[in-house]
Design brief:
The chain is an alpha/beta fold and 155 residues long. It has 2 domains: 63 residues, 2,3-Dihydroxybiphenyl 1,2-Dioxygenase, domain 1; 91 residues, 2,3-Dihydroxybiphenyl 1,2-Dioxygenase, domain 1. A hairpin with a 4-residue loop joins strand 6 and strand 7. The relative contact order is 0.14. It contains 5 helices and 8 strands, in the order βαββββαβββααα. The strands form 2 sheets. A 4-stranded mixed β-sheet has the order 1-4-3-2, with helices on one face. A 4-stranded mixed β-sheet has the order 5-8-7-6.
């Protein structure tokens, strides 16, 4: 089977973006750099925690990145949510329901695995309450999701 990887088009800030991303995620590294005859970086290959990415220094694009494509980070606990959210949103903007846009315009979802558990709870009222709580959040706060689900199961 062929290898499938994500390729991202940057507005001449590819090197800065890759340096940032490989600092944010553990077990990450630049694995290749392509340059033109003048030494300008054309493309970079890198890994984020072992996942392969490619980027091109394509210059201005008509639409840039949009939320129609995002990278999702599954977090084990609130400290991971806080770290990835706070680091990636710095210089970008917070969205809603775990979404943010980083300083390069790339969209991310910073999602605790506990959210997946709560929204698929066998008790439909608990699941609905967790979803309703999520809809009021920007960065996900696990304790608030659990409190909402717990309140629904008492009612």
């Amino acid at each position: 089977m062929p290898e499938i990887s994500t390729c991202l088009w940057f507005d001449d800030n590819l090197v800065e973006a890759v340096e940032f991303y490989t600092r944010v995620f553990p077990n990450s590294a630049v694995t290749g750099v392509s340059r033109d005859d003048h030494g300008r970086v054309l493309a970079v290959e890198w890994t984020l925690d072992g996942r392969a990415f490619r980027g091109i220094n394509g210059g201005p694009v008509h639409a840039g990145f949009t939320e129609t494509i995002s990278l999702s980070v599954s977090c084990a606990d609130q400290s991971e949510v806080d770290y990835y959210w706070d680091t990636l949103v710095d210089g970008g903007r917070a969205g809603s329901c775990a979404w943010l846009e980083d300083r390069f315009g790339l969209s991310w979802q910073i999602v605790p695995t506990r959210l997946y558990e709560l929204v698929s709870d066998a008790d439909a009222a608990r699941a609905r309450a967790a979803i309703a709580a999520l809809m009021r959040m920007q960065k996900v706060v696990i304790a608030d999701l659990e409190a909402a689900a717990d309140a629904a199961s008492v009612a």
